[in-house]
Amino acid sequence: MNHESYLRAVALPEYADQAPDAAERGASLVARPPHATVDTQTVEDRYVYPVPEPGEDGACGVGLADDPYNLAQICGLEYDPERLRDHPNTARLVALDETVRRLAEETNPDWLGVYRRATNADGQEVLVKEAYAGEHSRAEFPLTESFAERSNNATVGRTGEAVLVDDVDDYDGPYYECDDSVQSEFCCPVLAGNDVVGIIDAEAHEPDFFTPERVCTIAGTCAGLADSDLLTPPRVEA
């Protein structure tokens, strides 16, 4: 799907004739999984990350939870760092991390993350954070109607339509606050055909941060991810 068609598909028609070079550049930032075996520290870095202590009613609490989040289970794997060194899912997560870092360098937000649509251990459909650059944040966003009423991520994951918040203080739509420094946000779906397979969420500490060029670059990366296998865990035993 070309950049114009993709922007229209994710409900951003006003950007369809803007910054085509930025969209192409965004798609080119999607990394390929490495062929080399990684070390156990890389396995830990890609699978395990700190998360905030949950607050009341699922909101972000104060401080970090005692137990970090581990992606192995939601990827259908047993967490064994030595056996996961040359696993194709580890290579997938390494490529996702590289993609996030390239996109963060290109667009320079204060926070950027890629979430994959998945089913968690409780059988609940969620968006799970698989790579990010910035402060620690929650790992899963439930894709329920009730949670979408207060979360852009869940709303975008359910509808397949992007959400751009130019100024948080003036925004009256669903908004999940985990960092009160955030002043603007762009959340874009990774749309494969008619299916939302994930999202990219980006946040900045200043209003009106997401210019047409930044919007098109991030949407271009979403389109590139949709054409890749990076949001599809390989069905291989650890």
UniProtKB/TrEMBL annotation:
Stored InterPro entries: GAF (IPR003018), GAF-like_dom_sf (IPR029016)
Residue span, GAF domain: 95-216
Superkingdom of origin: Archaea
Name of protein: GAF domain-containing protein
Lineage, top ranks: Archaea, Methanobacteriati, Methanobacteriota, Stenosarchaea group, Halobacteria
